[in-house]
From TrEMBL:
The lineage of its organism: Bacteria, Bacillati, Actinomycetota, Actinomycetes, Mycobacteriales. Transmembrane segments: none annotated. It comes from the Bacteria. Keywords: Hydrolase. This is Alpha/beta family hydrolase. The keyword DNA-binding does not apply. It holds the Pfam family Abhydrolase_11.
Amino acid sequence: MPDCTQEAAYIDGGGVRGFLHLPDGDPVASLALTHGAGSNCTAKLLVDVATAWSAHGIAVLRFDLAFRQARESGPPHPSKAPGDRDSVRDAVTYLRDRVPAPVLVGGHSYGGRQASMAVAEDNDLAAGLLLLSYPLHPPGKPGKARTAHLPDIEIPTLSVAGTKDPFATPTELREAIGLIPAQTSFVEVTGAGHDLSAHKHRTAERSLDAAVALFGIDVDTATTL
């Protein structure tokens, strides 16, 4: 799998495939971060987040879900979703075995949804949850909200979304994460769509600042804006 980030180490084994970004010094935390339904772990948003966060002391593993490991293109199948959640657990375990610091987990769109479901099934899995453009409902179908598992999430949750995201409005997302019985935070990215246009809107830096505040991470430089 090609990748343009030279400082990231390629990982492939034990159910984990992706790229590990390590900070210069000892990590103060780690993040297992995965992709959406139409992408893989080389997605620009994931690379930008991994690069920005690792520059401030957080080890980041951006990894492929099981469906993407099985085939290089095509969407996930609902019947295979449990396998994708196993990928999330494998990635978290990989980091926990190697980084003696709190482990966060999250993803973009479908990846964030699977991470949130994995956490709902096991709240000891991670110390915090990062949702980038959580796909609350299919575009144009707000009545089909994917919220059933949210009340089972008992760890701090950070949600980041654009104001032009067809999968949910900021108001809908704020109401949804309000179902989580733990501390939550919401970052509204004005003008961004579902892809969050990381470079244009400085999504990686803004999400890092919000994560520092919510998760209590003592990064090298707390303010990046």
